[in-house]
Amino acid sequence: MDERPSVEVCFTPNLYPLHFDDADVVVVIDVLRATTAICAGMANGVKTIIPVASIEEALEYRQRGYIVAAERKGKVVEGFDLGNSPYSWINPELIGKTVVLTTTNGTQAIHTSRRANEMVIGSLINLDAVVKYLHKKKLNVMLLGSGWRNKFCLEDTICAGAIADGLLASGDFRSEEDSTIAAKYLYLSAKDNYLGYLKASSHRRRLQDLNLNEDIKYCLTPNQVDVVPICKDGRISI
Amino acid sequence: MDERPSVEVCFTPNLYPLHFDDADVVVVIDVLRATTAICAGMANGVKTIIPVASIEEALEYRQRGYIVAAERKGKVVEGFDLGNSPYSWINPELIGKTVVLTTTNGTQAIHTSRRANEMVIGSLINLDAVVKYLHKKKLNVMLLGSGWRNKFCLEDTICAGAIADGLLASGDFRSEEDSTIAAKYLYLSAKDNYLGYLKASSHRRRLQDLNLNEDIKYCLTPNQVDVVPICKDGRISI
Question: Is residue B95 one of the residues assigned to a domain?
Fold first, then answer.
């Protein structure tokens, strides 16, 4: 019997019930762009982020005076302060502030895993920090991709594969699922050129159409920040 | 607007409703071992195969005098004639016969896609025959993996990636989904050594424990037969 903690990849929130056997820590990943924006904001002084699943909840917070970020289909929702472009989260005006956030996919994944013992926010920009944090904990890990409306998404899977590879390479973790093997293989073939590898990916095409190439480059550049945002009782902080 | 027919990969039956937009042909894939066994049987003289989802239905057929193959968890179910080992389907006694089949995953995937306009049985052993058939049809194709109890499974995805690659390489098909890109990438890195690539896969490990190494080798050797079994009105034939 292999007693090491496990690390497994779950591609999308709708598959969460199939995988949630014994994960102690869930890492929520939405590379393009929600979890990247959260990490960028947290590393640049945002104090607390309140993720909410619906525009309705976001509106309620807005009416109560909160700064609210709302994105749907890649765009800032009309009437809100910002969206999920990571650059808009690197803003001196947000330092020390609480920001409410709702996005198409990322905050849905956070909502899905809200009953996990611990929830960590992962992205490529805080990759090594997350691996280091999880390695220290030595608990069972589930890496949850946000996907695109519950469909498999390449960049989240590659990020999950990168985290899985980091933990498995240490020899201190085990893995059973084919989803984890596939994510690792995809990461290994992508890692020398994320931009080129993801050229054809559906999400990248979607954002390119919106002229978000700079955002895409930022999101696909690993290890720019050294924070591990944790979501607890509906609040994200570091 | 790209008017070419599409080819997309759906990893598992539970995701079928998310993907089933406009597929004209569904290719059901269960490399280890249901669809491989079907192709082996059909290429070796079995006349008709009746796939059924449950052991109960299989038992009813058994009582009515049919030859019945039933597999659960990699083993022949007690009281039935054979399972899904492809070697057991290459048998002179089955020539010209109708065989009823129920398996853990493969026949569930067939059941899931029973309302598709056309259903094709795909595997690595009839890979080129399937690609050729689909290329001639020039219709929208969905490649449906059987998975393992609705979890992602590496060998089905690699087979789907091989078919997708064959069609996309012709330039006559288009693809939009990240699942298709990932399947293609996985196939491309696996194709020179399927056995090695799948060494760690969960299903291979499961079958290895049952001493089914010869079966695994057979199932992972492409292009051994030149048949394209079609499932129509609940009956598979060529």
Answer: no
